[in-house]
Design brief:
The chain contains 13 helices and ten strands. 43% of the residues lie in helices and 14% in strands. The protein binds zinc ion. The site of zinc ion has 7 residues, from strand 1.
């Protein structure tokens, strides 16, 4: 500050001198209060590689494009799922992905097409498709989870196929990725043999419909395998692109229970992939370093037993 003040020449008009001093003050103040961005590895725990991104031949986001975006963003592991499953299977089998040091954790998507979004919970052919996919596996080894699935009416968590899939997830140690409201979390958990005490469920958007922080806290306390994924979560961000105080307190209370994700559900999310990840790095940088590392990487890696990433290539 003392050095900077020297460049304010005495013949400057007083107003300019004042402006310069204010600017210098803000630079110094800003540097002291804004933590640096988190710079470690990222685990993208909610990624889609749908057919409109790339249909296997043409498309705006072929594997080379999405891989370049992951590398530019420091993303070293992804939960991959897609409509239909061919997209994530392609990523899982691609030598370039492995060579880049990006670990693919494949999930079976329940959707062959858009029509499946609204009826999967009662559609036996989807249950059969899931079993067939699980039997086949992927180029990155066995599938590790089921989803993302949606429930627009939480009562459908009690649909016959939803019940069977939740039981299957617990029996085969498959992680569930679910975009549902808080009422559906209770219903889905009740449909597992352990009543939600042994299954792992990544809660996409951690209550996008606006479940209160207190309600999320209560569910976290009730189900030890509930993991909150934070894309699109309303109320998360406050001034300076940092976490709002209530969310910051919740992440500090459950540092091992939150993950981040891109949710590339439409191509626009791929176009902004790097800036989405930059946004996470900004608020992660405002957390204590050990908590930031857990939310960014350790929690996702731990869920699937991934080793620490090798130095980026
Ligand atoms: Zn999604």
């Amino acid at each position: 500050m003392a050095h900077a003040a020297l460049v304010v020449r005495p013949f400057w008009p007083l107003a300019l001198v004042h402006k310069a001093l204010v600017a210098i003050f803000f630079v110094a103040f800003g540097a002291a209060t804004h933590a640096a961005d988190y710079t470690g590895p990222l685990f993208d725990a909610h990624l889609h590689y749908n057919e409109e991104a790339w249909d296997g031949k043409t498309g705006p986001h072929p594997p080379s494009d999405v891989l370049a975006r992951m590398k530019a963003s420091g993303v070293r592991a992804i939960v991959a799922n897609s409509r239909p499953n061919t997209g994530s299977l392609a990523l899982a089998a691609l030598p370039e992905v492995r060579a880049a040091g990006v670990a693919v954790v494949p999930f079976v998507r329940l959707y062959r097409n858009r029509a499946d979004y609204t009826g999967w919970f009662a559609d036996e052919t989807i249950y059969d498709m899931v079993l067939a996919e699980l039997a086949k596996g992927t180029g990155s080894g066995p599938y590790r989870g089921i989803g993302e699935f949606h429930l627009y009416d939480s009562a459908n968590a009690d649909g016959p196929v939803a019940k069977k899939l939740m039981a299957l997830a617990e029996q085969r140690s498959l992680v569930v990725l679910a975009h549902v409201d808080d009422a559906a979390i209770d219903l889905l958990m009740a449909n597992t043999p352990s009543k939600g005490q042994k299954v792992s469920l990544i809660w996409a958007h951690t209550g996008i419909g606006g479940a209160s922080v207190e309600r999320v806290d209560a569910l976290m306390g009730r189900y030890p395998g509930l993991v909150g994924e934070l894309s699109y979560r309303p109320g998360l961000g406050c001034d300076g692109e940092q976490l709002c105080p209530a969310w910051r307190a919740l992440l500090l209370k459950y540092p091992t229970r939150f993950v981040i994700g891109s949710d590339t559900w439409v191509n626009q999310r791929w176009q902004y992939y790097e800036s989405l990840m930059k946004g996470y790095r900004t608020w992660l940088g405002g957390l204590p370093a050990d908590v930031a590392r857990k939310v960014a990487w350790d929690n996702g890696a731990g869920l699937f037993g991934l080793p620490a990433p090798a130095p980026a290539r």
